[in-house]
Amino acid sequence: MKPAEPTRQRRFGRRKVCPFCADKTLYIDYKTPSMLKRFISERGKIVPRRISGVCAPHQRSLQTAIKRARIVAFMPYSSSTAD
Ligand SMILES: [Zn+2]
Asked: Which of 32, 39, 47, 57 lies 20 to 30 Å from 16, alpha-carbon distance?
């Protein structure tokens, strides 16, 4: 049995920066589903921020915007493509 080696994968080689922090003109708005769709998986789920690279406060407002967009039917709750 080999001891579990502590592989440190968290290097600063490619630091993902939050797109909303990087671009100040990018505004989280529930009325722009085209922008929100970037942060939604193809199944209609919100992409976790470790994948999207969105920072915590922006992920929060993103979630709110997506939820709001769903309520006003700009976006689907889940794309149920049951073919
Ligand atoms: Zn941010």
From this structure: 32
